[in-house]
Amino acid sequence: MGMKIYRSVFNSYMVNTYLLTTANKQALLIDPAFGNRQEWNIMNNKINELGVNLQKVIITHAHADHIMGAALLMETYPQVELLLHREGWDLYHTINNYAMIMGFEKQNFPEPNGYLSENQQIDVDNCLLKILYTPGHAPGSVSVYCAEANVVFTGDVLFRCSVGRTDLQGGNFEVLKNSIQQKLYTLPDETLVLPGHGDESNIAYEKHYNPFVND
User: Fold this and answer.
1) CA distances in angstroms from 77 to 38, 47, 70, 72, 155, listed in the order given
2) Among 58, 60, 137, 167, which has the minimal tally of Cβ within 10 Å of its Cβ?
3) Cβ(183)–Cβ(143) under 8 Å?
4) What pTM does this model have?
């Protein structure tokens, strides 16, 4: 299979950005969170160091801390597919209103050029990533599951012993809880959980120890 995962932590909200690479040097990035040109240079230097061809960028959800680097990335790699769930587009288009409140500078966000949908398969050099629609934290929240690598990227839906906040626009705890129970807790117990903030976990650990969601 040969997929490798590189984690970088960006901006004052300590967002995990993940770079996935294949043996044939194809790459996909999850959540372009680099908040300024200096942080983008760190990410871009890693891409260049690895010598990979960045094909796609997946946005797990359109909160400002997860997408602040989209413009810098697309400026450098205009051929990349920027992908977002359809339910998150309205939030994406108004995110500058929240970005400045959160301490970020106003951005000219690039237009996403593709929709994500439930059970969609994203093929990166024959490594298949399955899109799981997991709303509750934000409109259009998705998780990204790779059965071959035994890993799920959960954005701000599920954290180690915690869950995403539901008091922001479009948040709903019961919807979030259902997303976790129906879409994430049904994955194999040994599945590695790589969240949008904080440390990794696995499905079995969360099912047993996460105090916010009980089966």
Assistant:
1) 17, 11, 10, 9, 23
2) 167
3) yes
4) 0.97
